[in-house]
Every structure is written in C-alpha cells, then in structure tokens.
Design goal:
Elements (H helix, E strand, L loop, with lengths): L14 H21 L4 H32 L5 H25 L4 H27 L14 H17 L4 E4 L10 E9 L5 E9 H10 L10 H18 L4 H4 L3 E8 L1 H7 L4 E10 L2 E9 L1
Antiparallel strand pairs: 1-5, 2-3, 2-4, 3-6, 5-6
Helix pairs in contact: 1-2, 1-4, 2-3, 3-4, 4-7, 6-7
Amino acid sequence: MQDMMWDDSFNLGVDVIDRAHQRLMSIIHKMIGMVRDKDQEKKRWACEEGIKYFKSYTIKHFAEEEAYMRSIDHAEYEEHKLLHDTLRDDTLPKLEEKLVASDHSDQAVEDFLGVCMGWLTGHIMIEDRKIVRRDTAATEQKPDQEELQRLIYAVSQTIGQLFRLEIKVEDDHYNGEDFGRALHYKLTYQDILGEELHVIFAVDRPLVSDTVGKMLFIRFHKVNKTVISAMQQLSQQITHNLHTYFSETDRSFSLVGDEMLNPRRFRQEFETGSSLYSLLFETELGYFALSIRKP
C-alpha cells in the first residue's frame, strides 16, 4: 500500500491537534493495509494491536484537545467534550465487542475502520474547525430569510466544509428521483412524545469514495463495508451539525435508529408520509440529497 501523504489543508493551525489528527489517520491507513494480508493469524494479531494503539492514542488526543479548548475558554467546550466521551465510552466499546464476537472477521474489522474513519473525518472537518474559527456556526450571521433558505444555507456550509467542494442547489423540492448508483441511508429521530422524524440521505458513490479516501491518501475503487460505515458516521455528524442552526426545534429529538436503504426502500420513503424539506445538491463529483420527512 502507498504511504500516506498528509494534506496540509486539513490542518487547523494548532500543532498538538494537527499532529494527533495526522497520527490517527496514519494508524487507520496502516490498518487498512493489514486487513489485506492473506496470513489470517498475522492479520488478526496486527489488527488487535492496531486497534489497541488507536484507542489509546485517541484517548490521549482527546485529553490534549480538551486541554487546549479550556485554555482558550472555548464557548462550546462541553458540547464538544460530549462528542469525545460518546466515542470513547460508547461507540468504541461496542465496536470492540463486535470484533471479539466475530473473532476479528474481515467484515467486523472493516466496519470498525469505517466508523472510526468517518467519525474522525467529520469531527475534524466540521467540529474541530469550530475550535479555531471565531465565527462558529453557533454565532454566525445567517440570512434573514424563510426556513427553507436557512436550511439550504446550513447544509451548504456543512457539506462545503466536509467535502471541500463547490456545492449548489439543484432542486429544493427533491422527490426521490434516481440520479445514478447512489447510497441511501436513513436516520430515525424521536421526540419525548414519541413523534418520529426521518432524515434521509442519498449520496453518489464517487462522492462518498472520494471523501472517505481523501484524508487517508487511499483511492477506493469500490464501495465496501469500510466506505459504507464511514458514510453512516458522516451522515450522523452532518445531521448533528445542523442542530446549531435549528437548535430550538431539533434538540428535542434523539436518534433512535439508522439503516441503509436499497433503491426500492428509498423510493418507498417518498411514497408515504410527508416531506418537510427535501433538497438535491450538485458537486463536481456527483449529487447529494437530503430529505427531512414525517412518516
């Protein structure tokens, strides 16, 4: 496998944080190479050791990043720390349980790498950039326009940061039309009264592969379990970041379920319920759709 070459455009300008991000991505890059080893015993040992090191280094990085945030009295410290705590205390332990239960199967390892890669990419490009940006999303001036325009603005800002691509609205009344070999993913949220809200994503495969591989200097020639798991994490972080624009309404909803949808299931989602907002965006690598619906 080709050595990883870090892209300096991912740097935040804080040495201790940038070095840690580069190291974490390097660990994942090496582990992806380990998965391809044909010697099962060697591969299992390498993955076990790699995962231990990744977990240990992640915890060390979180402590350093949180110390830096406290030193500058960052306004969103508590919310940011909660994201760290959730990965450390909930997400990683569950992934490790799956690894042990499957005897470190290739699929479980790919899932572990995909979740970690997607979480890190989204966290660095969306959440960590708020540490060094004085006009964070929570305090940014937003256009005094209708709710739809606010959502378009919010999504454009978030996706532009994450994918580092020019993005424009193609359709603000998207109704599930097919735009190629897309991946479809649904998040289900529920409020305290039991009312559900569905957030549905459709993303062109080249856009997913490019975004997932960009930080690792890896070209994914096909969408595998690692890429899909990474996309799921990115989608959740995109939705979470939109809360900063719609905090008065969206924070009352909690994530209760998520699933990949095949094309038939995806179309069925648009045949039932009602659409609150449904947007189709175009980038140079393909289309990205986001639909917020009531079942």
